[in-house]
Amino acid sequence: MSTSVEQKVEVTETQEIVLNEKREYTEAVHSAVDEEHIAPTEEDWKTLPEVGDRIPLSAFLVVLIEFCERFTYYGLNGPFQNYLQQPLPDGFPAGNNPNGQPGALNKGQQTATALTTFFSFWCYITPIGGAIIADQYLGKYKTIVLFAVIYMVGLLILTLTSIPSAIANGSAFGGYIAAILIIGLGTGGIKANVSTLVAEQVQTRTPFVRTKKNGKRVIVTPQATYQQLFNMFYWGINAGSLSAIATTELEKNVGFWSAYLLPLCMFVPCLCIIIFGRKIYIQTPPRGSVIVEAAKVIYYSWKVPGGFEGTKPSNLVTSSPDLAAKATWDDVFVDELRRGLKACGIFCWFPLYWLCYSQMTNNLTSMAATMNTGNVPNDIIQNIDPLVLIIFIPIMDRLVYPFFRSIGFPLRPIFRITIGFLFAAAAMAYTAGIQALVYKSPPFYEYPSEGDTPNDISGGYIVISYALIALSEIFASITGLEYAYKKAPQSMKSIVMSLFLFSSAVSNILQFALVSVNFDPKLVWMYSGIAIAAFICAILIWIFHGNNDKTDVEQDAIGRDKEELDKYQQHKANVSEYEAEKGPL
Fold first, then answer.
1. Is 449 within 8 Å of 522 (Cβ atoms)?
2. Where are the alpha helices (DSSP H) in 86-221?
3. Is the pTM of this model over 0.90?
4. Domain ranges of the chain
């Protein structure tokens, strides 16, 4: 290897990426985005309202992809509890039997709840694999295409094994198990990357002042922009989830095969949008050894003076010159990683939140089956949740959040997450009360699931439970997605997002632990315990993480400008060239 190449990897030549941390923060927050985007002054911050930037067309296309995928996912998930729990009614389909619940496999409530919980667990643990493939090897777009094909295979298996002849010859249960394993793999790979892909379409990185046509001046901020974007993204999710209204009607009046065929047909437009829109999306290429790089930084933080601060190449120059020459990261990567790890600490509280949320798709569905719902299928009531979200997300995005920003009190992430947990606790406390009323109602009282008719209590009471959960999602779930993206290192967006989704998988483990009390007459105590746990979590989140809101804008500003990114990529290329000739540093 030539001397000139060796010189490229010398510390003095390659580690001048970020030498002054104060300059990094100051330039990131206050530099102008371009000639028309003037950085806000201190007076502007005090007097002008914060608003979001314009959302590009490519972001709307990605939201449409998510709409189609969620239409498929929730369309399948809606009938699953009845498909597993209830027996095949006389006069199949159930619509021909006024007193019959739609069903097929007759596995009972505990088995059905356990399997639907496993499916949810599987769907939220597989994003980790999809994230690693995207960030380290294929990139987000190619990973989404790959897992979409896998998803389609699972949909075909589920549909074909739910036809009446397959149910009659005993093939349906095995087909269901195979299908949920494949579908879970597919949806996990998509889920880890589609939310980061939509965020990458927005290029607002620093605040700037904009003068509107009416002459009013506002500050366009990344925080307000991402809040608006993820509200829109989550609106698309819940619009798609309304597919369960159609599929639960189909299961009752036609059969389960038709309920699964509809989502299969809807997935085709999803594939088309993914493929035909490939030239429109802004795509970030995979970084390569990002996981190894992050692991090295974490390891060295225990070995060098100063912890994470000491692992910055600008500090290693003086403390550990030998390590500085080997570092393939820069100062900004260390700041990003530290910020990302701090965000992951918030995610540790979310399993309790998702435990509240998951009651909608299994135990609340079973509760509705023990109440008078008239001609309304018991599992269609869960669609109250997305209906409330579709109504209230635009209200929050267009009225409530802008109002608080206009009066100088923007609702920062930790505050919103805390409110979300409080709403979730209220939902479970209310549900415990309704379950107690069910147990006090004739004719089966504390054992309503053992009767062939529902207890004498209106199913309308359960609507409030779904509405409270929906409000909690606006504050906790949407903010969690936004927080995961904003705080993740640029090269690890999918991985950090998958860790946020993984918190839902952990909640499913907790749900498994509660299977032993998922039966009458213990459900009141189960709901009460979950409510108390969620309330305590809300208080602890604010105590331990509330101060993060004070540095939210400053932390979001950590990043590279184009010149620094070019230096960074060149340094990595130089190190790779050196290692190829002389072996690992």
1. no
2. 108-125, 127-133, 140-160, 164-168, 172-200
3. no
4. 9-31+290-327+561-582, 47-286+335-556
